[in-house]
Amino acid sequence: MVLVPSGKYLTAMAFLKGPCKGPMTFKLDGVLLATKDLSKYQRKNWISFEFIKNFKLIGRGTFDGQGQSAWANNKRTGKTFPTSLQFTNIDNGVVQGFSLLNAKMFHMMIFRCNNLMVDSVKINAPGNSPNTDGIHISLCNNIIIKNTKISTGDDCISIGQTNRGLSITNVICGPGHGISVGSLGKYNSDKDVSDIMVSRCNIKGTTNGVRIKTWQKSYPLTCRNFTFQNIKMDNVLNPIIIDQEYCPYGNGRCGGQSTSSQVSIRDVTYDTIKGSSASQVAINLKCSKSHPCKNLRFRNVNLKYNRGTTQSTCLNVANPNMNSVYPLTCKR
């Protein structure tokens, strides 16, 4: 076991790399402070755990990224700042109990991991802190995130390419950009995303609730078998959104209107999602013209805009299944 006792400790970049001869436990009871000197990060992460089987990161301590020193330099132009905590090639892991505070960029990155559980973690950064995603997951199998509270300036949880078998349960999200799948299809190496379950979550004061986004100009892949259920929305700008016209560079810079996303979305269920929308359009489905969304199922959805009539958008959705849905969506 590696133990960080009570107290405050200033650190530069550090990584613990396996393989190890047996199970490995890292216990954090104190506060680790990331140096503000960006020249001390030879790699784009602060604390990294790599190539370890049967790993535990536990404790009641805090990883403080001291991100305030970097946010003013982040103009959202693609420049990368250190991720606070990265897990790479972890098989059979438990991440539990501690806090992540004010990352310079992402708070936690889970990359090429199998059978890893994140439980009872607190992540906190101001709502205006740039690119401070709570948890980003990419190229993973069988990841569980539960009993976790996330407040950030970007996605609470972002699900990247080539993921299979992800469960998100009892997460409190806000402020931030919600729980997002994507953006997908930007690179030829992006592969399918499947078997995603998001349930019993509370999303409050975010720009998005549950979102699927793909690049307008994209490489082909498939999103399938997603379930969003038992979710409470509280003053969320876009409670339910599928955006297959994603282009952060401005109109015409991702291929223009004639370009249609090559990402296929199918077998997605929205079940028992209720609450309030901060915008008039509470359900916004903008699917691909060349690859329409297929087998979308909505059951027991009730989202209301408190300042007027609640509306929905439905573009390129093939034969949706609607049962007790407000606002009325994809009218036939």
UniProtKB/TrEMBL annotation:
* Alphabetical list of SMART domains matching this protein: PbH1 (SM00710)
Provide the primary localization: secreted
Q: Which reaction does it catalyse?
A: [(1->4)-alpha-D-galacturonosyl](n) + H2O = alpha-D-galacturonate + [(1->4)-alpha-D-galacturonosyl](n-1)
Instruction: Write down a Pfam family by its short name.
Output: Glyco_hydro_28
Q: Does the keyword Hydrolase apply?
A: yes
Q: Which GO terms describe its molecular function?
A: galacturan 1,4-alpha-galacturonidase activity; polygalacturonase activity
- Print the keywords alphabetically: Cell wall, Cell wall biogenesis/degradation, Glycosidase, Hydrolase, Secreted
Localization recorded for this chain is:
Secreted, Cell wall
Q: What is its EC number?
A: 3.2.1.67
InterPro entries xrefs: Glyco_hydro_28, PbH1, Pectin_lyas_fold, Pectin_lyase_fold/virulence
Q: Which residues form the active site?
A: 177
One GO BP annotation of this record: cell wall organization
Q: What does this protein do?
A: May function in depolymerizing pectin during pollen development, germination, and tube growth. Acts as an exo-polygalacturonase.
Q: What does the sequence similarity comment in the record state about its family?
A: Belongs to the glycosyl hydrolase 28 family.
Q: What is this protein called?
A: Exopolygalacturonase
